[in-house]
Amino acid sequence: MRERSTGAPPSALQFVRQLARDFIGASAGNRLEDFGDVPVFDMPLVGAVDGRDPVFQVFREVVSPGHLMPPEILERYSGAGADLSCVSVVSWALPFSQDVRRSNRGRDWPSPLYSVARNNGGAIIFGMSRRLTEQLRGSGFAAVSPILTEEYDAFRSAEHGLSSTWSERHVAYAAGLGSFGLHGSLITPIGSYVRFGSLVVNLPTGPAAPRMDDYRAPCLSTGGETCGLCRDRCPAGAISENGMDKEKCYVRRNEIRERNLVGYAGKYRMLPSPIVKGGTRKEGYSLGCALCLCGVPCEDTDPEG
Ligand code: SF4
Ligand code: SF4
Questions:
Q1: The model's pTM
Q2: Is 75 helix (H, G, I), strand (E, B) or coil?
Q3: Lower CB density within 10 Å: C or N end of the chain?
Q4: DSSP-assigned letters across all residues of 19-47
């Protein structure tokens, strides 16, 4: 690892925000050539949180007992002698572009444009996590993106159902990017139709956005009484006044995969990315659904914000 230059280091928030914007601005993979070159993502919203914030301990209770602790994972992937007096977690929300969002307002099945954008978006996030981490290390800092490590896993647990050792949605909440809506996704100031990524770095956090005291958006805490449109839009009946049923949603997404993947992979340029599940990691494709995130008040804004 190179020596740091003297003088005050930049904040994690400012440094990574700039790197993230530069990456998306220059990413060839962010254009969908089969759909008139429309972008997958627009520019990211970025937040940061101190890596020693007690909220990460809470994630061991509400997400999984093995949820990674930022100082530990950074230490494991730092060079000897790295200064870990500052540990920050930076989270970014990548909003799907307007073309992608508008294409996915059907009632039953996700659109081909959304499906390819969702799949290629996964590859963009892995590539972005890798590139930003390398750039930070090249600038003399210790950095790691948890989803790239062998400690990252996604699995089913008796207590929490579908779970993982690093929940990007929860990390984004910790970084002040929003609160959870009735549909189970985070409602950020740029809406809930976003995908998240994150990294851990030994830089001072910077002017972090204040986190909501209540993790629930108003629509979740009231069972969607004043809106509930995501519940109406879900063709699988996976959303109720109690929130989103991850199992029902998972079954529906499997149906979508079986129905569409082979045809789409033969017709469109789809980028592979690592599929991590139950201790295995292999390259593959990932289709989503997200009908509950489209054509609703929180699609591209926080209606309560
Ligand atoms: S669609 Fe309405 S009820 Fe559902 S998460 Fe968004 S604001 Fe909440
Ligand atoms: S992603 Fe699809 S199946 Fe899952 S909750 Fe949303 S609309 Fe329902």
A1: 0.95
A2: helix
A3: C
A4: HHHHHHHH-GGGEEGGGTTEESB-PPEEE
